[in-house]
């Protein structure tokens, strides 16, 4: 499996990526990949340690003539987002990623690819294994759980690293040099409700929203992509007044950092309104598809008759929750006034689960301004508390403040222009990078982020551009040759 991937250039990088993608590595379940990386370092005879939270640190001395250069920390995260299409049969806990080549792109068969951040990990592995690549002393830092809380970066103690420069390999545009990022906080609303027996005069329907692109809830939040949870709520919002619609269950979205692609609901309506309900749903579905035809050409909304559910949720709670979901902001809240075209603050309405008397609504709120992040989180908190939910703010992590006087930034900007004949795009991003957190314990470390072109991260459409990886690899090698003196 994946033999054609191993023939791509640069072979040393793609082979390490194939090795890594054979190891299941979901966030919060990184035991196997931690052991894999520890063995990798030990097999090379390099100083290798696993810290108390599970981060792996591998140290390699400088090559001849490079010992006077500043020690470099090369950093990527081991975990990957596990998402698959509904019709894909795949077990992330036991199977390696099945990859294939399509034109200039490497993709996975119906699942996320793991290029985020596996290509960064593979890059560092290739450098550690190499015998002919010039580089200063390297401290390779492989963090865990970046995708669902950044607990690896948060748990990294001061003093474990001595490097003066950190190269974070987790950016997804090859012409971009990252100098800042957004912080984030999880907003989770929960409550219980009473279930009632479904009256005999009602009939059951399944409502399914599918075919959306999904994607990264930070980097793609401004692209106008459809949110399955918002679409589902729009479909059922006025259902009680018009057709006696009652909710039995809703299951929409998944991970907080992925824009929801799918949602399913089981509802009951008054049998007498069946024809009117189906007509209205068809009209509303067509309206929504027209609105999203440019960004979501494959959106599909399926309404199908099913066995009448035995129990439905309390009407008062239903009315309150559907209104709260309508009111809850999803998407861009504010653009940056200081950095052109940068999303400052946003929210992803990531997960809606209503079933068996329990409600859970999960959001990820991001901002490059700490006060704005808290402001939007409190806006969501107030929205859900008004309908009787308990709201918890958790997993708070800071952003990374840009340093435009960075020494490594000046080196890399010149190298990029020399290699490619054009200036790089020096920018902050709306994703969560670990640099801000790592900087808390290593405040003097000069940090930068870059990487190859990766599209559709956090979705089954994730893909990595082969030609871009080649361009990025050459950039990496030149950077390591030109690290400033200590």
TrEMBL record:
GO process annotations (BP): proteolysis
Cofactors named for this entry: Co(2+); Zn(2+)
Organism whose genome encodes this protein: Seonamhaeicola algicola
Domain Peptidase M20 dimerisation: 207-293
Catalysed reaction equations from the record: Hydrolysis of dipeptides, preferentially hydrophobic dipeptides including prolyl amino acids
Name of the protein in question: Cytosol non-specific dipeptidase
Recorded superkingdom: Bacteria
Matching PANTHER family: CYTOSOL NON-SPECIFIC DIPEPTIDASE
GO MF, one example: metallodipeptidase activity
UniProt-listed InterPro entries: Peptidase_M20, Peptidase_M20_dimer, Peptidase_M20C
Similarity comment: Belongs to the peptidase M20C family.
Keywords assigned: Cobalt, Hydrolase, Metal-binding, Metalloprotease, Protease, Zinc
One GO cellular component, as annotated: cytosol
EC number annotated for this UniProt entry: 3.4.13.18
């Amino acid at each position: 499996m994946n033999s054609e991937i191993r023939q791509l250039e640069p072979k040393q990088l793609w082979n390490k990526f194939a090795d890594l993608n054979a190891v299941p590595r979901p966030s919060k379940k990184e035991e196997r990949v931690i052991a894999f990386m520890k063995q990798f370092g030990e097999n090379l005879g390099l100083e290798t340690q696993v810290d108390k939270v599970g981060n792996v640190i591998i140290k390699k001395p400088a090559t001849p003539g490079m010992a006077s250069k500043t020690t470099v920390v090369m950093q990527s995260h081991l975990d990957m987002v596990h998402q698959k299409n509904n019709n894909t049969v795949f077990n992330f806990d036991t199977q390696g990623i099945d990859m294939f080549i399509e034109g200039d792109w490497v993709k996975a068969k119906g699942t996320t690819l793991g290029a985020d951040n596996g290509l960064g990990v593979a890059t560092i592995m290739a450098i550690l294994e190499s015998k002919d690549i010039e580089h200063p002393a390297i401290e390779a830092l492989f963090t865990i759980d970046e995708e669902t809380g950044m607990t690896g970066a948060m748990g990294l103690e001061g003093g474990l690293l001595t490097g003066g420069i950190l190269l974070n390999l987790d950016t997804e545009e090859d012409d971009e040099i990252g100098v800042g990022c957004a912080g984030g906080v999880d907003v989770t609303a929960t409550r219980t409700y009473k279930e009632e027996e479904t009256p005999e005069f009602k009939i059951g329907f399944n409502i399914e929203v599918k075919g959306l692109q999904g994607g990264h809830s930070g980097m793609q939040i401004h692209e106008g992509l459809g949110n399955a949870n918002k679409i589902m709520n729009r479909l059922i919002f006025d259902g009680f007044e018009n057709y006696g619609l009652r909710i039995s269950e809703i299951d929409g979205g998944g991970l907080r950092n992925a824009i929801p692609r799918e949602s399913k609901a089981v509802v009951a309506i008054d049998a007498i309104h069946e024809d009117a309900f189906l007509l209205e749903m068809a009209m509303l579905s067509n309206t929504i598809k027209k609105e999203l035809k440019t960004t979501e050409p494959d959106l599909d909304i399926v309404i199908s008759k099913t066995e009448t559910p035995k129990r439905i949720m309390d009407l008062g709670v239903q009315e309150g929750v559907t209104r709260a979901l309508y009111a809850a902001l999803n998407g861009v809240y504010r653009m940056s006034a200081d950095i052109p075209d940068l999303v400052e603050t946003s929210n992803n309405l990531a997960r809606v689960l209503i079933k068996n008397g329990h409600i859970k609504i999960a959001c990820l709120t991001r901002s490059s301004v700490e006060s704005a992040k808290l402001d939007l989180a409190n806006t969501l908190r107030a929205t859900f508390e008004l309908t009787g939910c308990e709201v918890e703010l958790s997993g708070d992590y800071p952003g990374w403040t840009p340093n435009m006087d960075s020494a490594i930034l000046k080196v890399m900007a010149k190298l990029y222009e020399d290699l490619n004949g054009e200036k790089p795009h020096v920018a902050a991003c709306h994703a969560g990078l670990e640099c801000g957190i790592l900087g808390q314990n290593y405040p003097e470390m000069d940090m930068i982020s870059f990487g190859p072109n990766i599209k559709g991260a956090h979705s089954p459409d994730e893909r990595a551009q082969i030609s871009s990886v080649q361009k990025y690899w050459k950039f990496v090698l030149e950077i390591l040759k030109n690290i400033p003196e200590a």
